[in-house]
Amino acid sequence: MLNIVRQRLFADGLLARADFRRYWASSIATSFGGQVGGLAIPLCAALMLQATPAQMGILGAWQALPFALLALPAGVWLDRSRKLPILLGSKILQGTALASIPLAWWLGLLTMHWLYAVGAIMGACSVVGGAAEQMLLTFMVGRDRLIDAHAKFTLSDSMARVTGPGLAGLLVQALTAPIAVLVDAIGVLLSGWMLGGIKVTEPAPTPLDQHPLADIRDGLRFIWQTPLLRTLIVAVGGWHIFLYATNALQIVFATRVLGMSPGVLGAANMIGGLGALASSLLIKPLSDRFGAGKTILIGLWSTTVSFLLIPLIPAQLPATPILYGLAIFAYDCGVFIFLLPYVALRQKVTPDAMLGRMISTSRFLTVGSAPLGALAGGYLGDAIGIRDAMLAVALASALLCVAVSTSRTIRSVRP
Questions:
Q1: Which of 66, 71, 191, 255 is the most exposed, fewest CB within 10 Å of its CB?
Q2: Contact at 8 Å (CB) between 122 and 98?
Q3: How far apart are CA 368 and CA 366, in angstroms?
Q4: C-alpha to C-alpha distance for 326 and 404, rounded to whole angstroms
Q5: Do the Cβ atoms of 336 and 278 come closer than 8 Å?
Q6: Helices in 176-200 by DSSP H: which ranges?
Q7: pLDDT digits over 151-184, tens only?
Q8: Cα separation of 395 and 49, whole Å?
Q9: Is 0.85 topped by the overall pTM?
Q10: Which residues have CB under 8 Å from 341's CB, separation 6+?
């Protein structure tokens, strides 16, 4: 039996490589911890600190603000530097920041301002380390195998998505939210330890032959002069605004309006995690049949259906958690089908020397406006009520889908 497993393992060109397996294992540790922390941190704010919708919006804004402030200079820095040391440093910083939450709680110092600071650090690590991670994967597997590699990551992400929120809900209910955040910190630090053993052949960094501002200008010009990238950036940027507006309200809506406990909320999110598993099975067949462009549209519509369904769920009924889980299923399935072809497509059309600037400029242009969405969602929830605010955001997201679906530039991308 062991020999059969080994033969099948090495029959796959990617899994036959020890460095890719170690990279994938690192991704699994990050995904599992992130799924626990992704639910535990907002629950910490909503339940332990009694955050208002506006404060939840501010928390989301702090997490996204580094994309607006750091993404452009980060791209220049990455193109001029080795990526692996930067990635390892960001993992250590992120894990330490997360571990400070249970420490502050134990010392009686935990406040919303502490969570704002941790959110900003996590956002900064995502800007720099996340871009370095995408670049390393491109160098490791090559552009032609990015969809295949992302499909494997989606499979492991889906398993983490199925189990992580359930564990988070149980930990929050039994041991409090800060203890659940500690699991996330351990996952990030373990991921960094595993990445320290990989070997990736990186292209030589770009020489320092021009001012960094000129490099930033080149990154912006490259995206503007590439019609496919320009169109994708507009679509993904608009989607991030509505996503962060929804996220600012979703945990407060689930716990205070729908009346779900942390344990029930975690179980409902486990149902949603099956959507990520479904996407891991669908992403490659959809891309092969329809091409990356139409696959992106399918995923975009699936996430918008989720945005529309959540505010329509009735409160405190036996079926409420199931309906919530099904709405999250539509989101989790759609988000991977939407974003993974987008990431692979933009990297496929970008040369190595421009890759860091393209990734960071793209993140600046797409996530840099997300703080506005988070703040708008939070303050709208305070002004007109959480359910009505979520419905208004969902309708605006549907209008974006209609506009993007008319784009010939996206629909014309062939398999």
A1: 255
A2: yes
A3: 6
A4: 25
A5: no
A6: 177-195
A7: 677 677 777 777 777 777 777 777 778 888 888 8
A8: 31
A9: no
A10: 147, 283, 287, 292, 293, 295, 296, 299
Residue 377 one-letter amino acid: G
CATH number of the domain encompassing residue 296: 1.20.1250.20
Position 6 in a domain: no
Please state, in angstroms and as integers, the Cα–Cα distance from residue 130 to each residue in 17, 96, 147, 180, 276, following that order.
22, 17, 18, 23, 20
**By C-alpha distance, which of 63, 30, 40 is closest to 188?**
30
114 part of a folded domain? yes
What type of residue sits at position 371?
P
Report if residue 312 sits inside a domain. Answer: yes
Q: What is the span of the domain harbouring residue 324?
A: 12-199+211-411
> Residue 143: is it exposed, middle or buried by C-beta count within 10 angstroms (0-12/13-18/19+)?
middle
402 has a pLDDT exceeding 60 = yes
Q: What is the largest CA-CA distance in the chain?
A: 65
Q: What is the pLDDT of residue 205?
A: 64
Q: For every residue of 219-257, which 3-state class applies, written as one string?
A: HHHHHHCCHHHHHHHHHHHHHHHHHHHHHHHHHHHHHHH
What gap in Å lies between CA 177 and CA 170, rounded to an integer? 10
pLDDT at 301 over 70: yes
Are 29 and 191 contacting, i.e. CB atoms less than 8 angstroms apart? yes
pLDDT of residue 207: 61
